[in-house]
Design a protein that fits this description.
The complex is a heterodimer. Chain A has no helices and 11 strands. In chain B, strand 5 and strand 6 form a beta hairpin. The chains are: A mainly beta, B mainly beta.
């Protein structure tokens, strides 16, 4: 299995609070991604990174920011959480563009009350 | 714009039945990649197969087979002699060369295999 660790695995917090999710990889892969999974939508890309300090927006980036200061870590931050951001968040990694499959972490279940 | 449609929201079969999961995609790129992932009840996402747009050969892996047809923009997945352990959510996904390796997922198909 790809060495991907997401933390925390579960979190419950209140509307308006900041939340940071961490993705840590041991594979030295260049590309890292954050997705959210919601019923009826499959997985949707929030942000991705193609190198240290190189990030770009995905399909549903509003309300989220990311940072990547080291190859192995990719952080997702909700500056002021809203109930619509209650979801399961997955991190993924891949070592090349295009045709390489992404390998996913085990997910973080985030509930915002 | 890229889009993936999995029209079957949920399928229920009895063990040992064959089942086909449909996937239809839209893309304007000539170079693209198609994927299937499995999400068992435990929640992790498991990569099953990758296919590039230049390779229309069907693939078989044990009880799993995939039928890729560019003419109908479809990449269907068949499980032969289904088993209870096949119960999961199955996602089809697409990435286009023009947009790097960003995956667009279908909504998923829930497969329930009953004993």
């Amino acid at each position: 299995d790809a060495g991907i660790t997401q933390s925390p695995r579960h979190k419950v917090t209140e509307t308006g609070t900041p939340v940071t999710l961490r993705c840590h990889q041991t594979e030295n892969h260049r590309y890292m991604y954050w997705y959210r999974q919601d019923p009826g939508h499959g997985l949707r890309l929030i942000h991705y990174s193609y190198g240290v300090k190189d990030t770009d927006k995905g399909e549903v980036s509003d309300g989220y920011s990311v940072s990547r200061s080291k190859t192995e870590d990719f952080l997702l931050t909700l500056e002021s959480a809203t109930s619509s951001q209650t979801s399961v968040y997955f991190c993924a990694i891949s070592d090349r563009r295009g045709n390489q499959p992404q390998h996913f972490g085990d997910g973080t279940r985030l509930s915002i009350l | 714009a890229q889009k993936v449609t999995q029209a079957q929201t949920e399928i229920s079969v009895v063990e040992k039945e064959d089942v086909t999961l449909d996937c239809v995609y839209e893309t304007r790129d000539t170079t693209y990649y198609l994927f299937w992932y499995k999400q068992p009840p435990s929640g992790e996402l498991v990569f099953l197969i990758r296919r590039n747009s230049f390779d229309e050969q069907n693939e078989i892996s044990g009880r799993y087979s995939w039928n890729f047809q560019k003419s109908t923009s479809s990449f269907n997945f068949t499980i032969t002699a289904s088993q209870v352990v096949d119960s999961a959510v199955y996602f089809c996904a697409l990435s286009e060369r023009e947009y790097g390796n960003k995956l667009v997922f279908g909504a998923g198909t829930i497969l329930r295999v009953k004993s």
